[in-house]
């Protein structure tokens, strides 16, 4: 009887993994359920399960992290394109490029400032948590 339960759990686990992959690939729950070969009601039930939610969030995070890595790899080319457009001789392109450079520079400064503030808060929280 133990072997049957273990096998059934493994089968469900595979179905849940297929459902997570389908959720990442399909625009609607019903399409994801169909792609995973399960009923929509089953998928909705799994989405209410905290463990399934955790695994789905982790999978989504991994997809986003891969996308961000791809964007970071293209950053050098994007900066080069902006620089080319700064002196392209087409006023609209030059203005758009200049605006983008300024906007991104300001956002970068804001992010660095925020990171520094978070680090200061973390150090203060750690110091406050230490026994005296």
Explain how this protein is built.
The structure is a single chain. With 132 residues, this protein is an all-alpha fold. Helix content is 87%, strand content 0%. It is built from 6 helices and no strands. It has helices at 2-25, 29-36, 40-47, 50-73, 75-86, 91-129. Helix 5 (75-86) packs across helix 6 (91-129). Residues 1-6 have low confidence and may be disordered.
Describe, in short, the structure shown.
It contains six helices and no strands.
Which key terms come to mind for this protein?
mainly alpha, 0% strand, flat, disordered N terminus
Query: What's the order of the H and E elements?
Result: HHHHHH
Q: Give the radius of gyration.
A: 24 Å
Identify the quaternary structure here: single chain
The secondary-structure class comes to mainly alpha
Task: Describe the secondary structure blueprint for this structure.
Layout: H1 2-25, H2 29-36, H3 40-47, H4 50-73, H5 75-86, H6 91-129
């Amino acid at each position: 009887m133990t072997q049957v339960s273990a096998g059934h759990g493994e089968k469900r686990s595979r179905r849940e993994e297929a459902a997570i992959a389908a959720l990442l690939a399909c625009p609607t729950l019903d399409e994801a359920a169909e792609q995973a070969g399960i009923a929509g009601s089953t998928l909705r039930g799994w989405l209410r399960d905290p463990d399934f939610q955790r695994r789905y969030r982790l999978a989504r995070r991994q997809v986003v992290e891969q996308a961000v890595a791809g964007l970071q790899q293209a950053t050098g080319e994007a900066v080069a394109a902006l620089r080319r457009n700064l002196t392209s001789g087409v006023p609209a392109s030059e203005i758009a490029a200049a605006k983008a450079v300024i906007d991104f520079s300001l956002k970068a400064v804001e992010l660095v400032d925020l990171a520094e503030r978070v680090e200061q808060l973390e150090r203060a929280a750690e110091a406050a948590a230490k026994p005296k």
